[in-house]
Amino acid sequence: MSNSFVSFDAMQERVVNMLKSEAIPAEIAPIYLVRDLFGKVRISVSDAVQEDSTLQRLAAGLHQTLGQHGYPAADAVLLVDDAMLQALNDTAQNVFPGVYWVDRLVTGHDWWTVGDSDRQRTPMRYTLFSVKGGVGRSTTAAVLAWHLVRRGERVIVVDLDLESPGLSSAMLAPQEQPEFGVTDWFVEDLVGQGERVIEQMTAMPAWAQDFEGDVYVVPAHGRDPGEYLAKLGRVYMDTTNEPWTARLERLLKALEAVCDPSVVLLESRSGMHDIAAATVTDLHAETLLFAMDSASNWTDYNILFRHWQQHGLAPKIRERLLLVSALTPELDTEQYLRRFQEQAWDLFRDNLYDDVKPLDESGAEFSFALDADPAPHNPLPIHWTRGLAAGTSLHDLETTTVEQAYAEFLRRFDLLFKFDDRGETR
Fold it and tell me: Domain check: are 72 and 164 in the same one?
């Protein structure tokens, strides 16, 4: 074993360099290099594979190359059945012909896969996501619902920020709160009672009753939170038949069947937790990425975008993303938004946009100039105002306050997602 220090981040590059001197026989491929929960790498191959000198060399090479992140050669090869190997494919990254890299994780699994997009689906889903809290996602979800229902849309707003619930209090008076919420459905579904609560999870706010459309609010918890922490600790449970992300999709489909919406708004948890990942990657939703022009925001988004790029996920996710300039300041607004746009363009250009060759006029590449509009990096601005900063519930807000903060955001949202083409009513 190498006596030199090998860091976690250096492992994959060192292994790929080692593999360049190997020819992987077709009869033993595919080979999976599985980095376990301790950050140590083993080789997994089908139990149908016979003893092979290539596997022995690879085992010895890993032990030598990876230092403390490797296993002794005698313990480095696992023969597993084909069904288990097949289960690795969702997160497997092809790093060398016939060789795949797999990370086993305690959390964060869902950032590694991206479901297929379906812009023709009905209803349309929109996720409101941010890497940091306190950027106005809840208020924006409420304002966007208010705007769409005035246009005649039928809207469901779902509070999936379960660790910091509060969307329903921005949209519903206390007496309007429904009996159950998202956490209740997850725990009742574990014992086969999800359908017993689904029709008691939505409430229609009184402030929307005079509009052309309808809005249904689905809170994180019901009128009485009850044993909320005990329920929250069971929300992310997989069952023998379904991962919890599939259960979340099933919940949304059940709500859609009950309410028949044209639009579903999902307020995601902030940060890089699994439930945030699912709302961005697995629910066929367009994603509004809330950010402020700060070094920490751009660093965090760069981590996420770089991950998608490195694991070949950029083409599947990038067309769903749209940046939002949250809490855009009142002073020097034009300069602030210009600086924001430049930072956002760097982020997308370096990680998600295609590298367009000079004189290439095919138009097939996914890439946008700095000033292109529409473009994912060109932000929808939400302007900071004192009225919104006070934390007032939506049903108490003055229309002028909302319009001051959201006029440009709502105008461009309608244009981008074709709501202007749908008329004032459905």
Answer: no
Contact call for residues 254 and 146 (beta carbons, < 8 A): no
> Which strands form 124-130's sheet, in the order they lie side by side?
214-218, 154-159, 263-267, 124-130, 286-291, 321-328, 380-383
Q: Are residues 75 and 128 in the same domain?
A: no
Do 158 and 26 sit in the same domain of this protein?
A: no
Roughly what angle, to the nearest 10 degrees, separates helices 182-189 and 244-259? 120
The tokens 């599939």 sit on which residue? 246
- Terminal C-alpha separation, the chain: 68
- The sign of the dihedral angle between the CA atoms of 364, 120, 218, 229 is negative
Predicted confidence band at 402 (pLDDT cuts at 50, 70, 90)?
confident
1 vs 64, 69, 140, CA distance in Å? Answer: 4, 10, 55
- Give residue-wise pLDDT tens across range 164-192: 988 888 899 999 999 999 999 999 999 99
Q: Which domain holds residue 323?
A: 114-355+362-422
Coil, helix or strand at residue 220: coil
Q: Between the CA of residue 390 and those of 152, 171, 403, 405, 408, what are the distances in Å?
A: 29, 15, 16, 13, 21
The verdict on residue 109 lying in a domain is no
Listed range (119-128, 218-227, 247-256, 320-329) with the worst mean pLDDT: 119-128
Alpha carbons 74 and 54: distance in angstroms, whole number: 14
Amino acid at 266: L
Residues 6+ apart with CB under 8 A from 361: none
Residue among 197, 200, 211 at smallest CA distance from 399 = 211
Amino acid at 241: N
Average pLDDT, the chain: 88
DSSP 373-421: SS-TTSPEEEE--HHHHTT--GGG--HHHHHHHHHHHHHHHHHHTTGGG
CB 399 within 8 A of CB 387: no
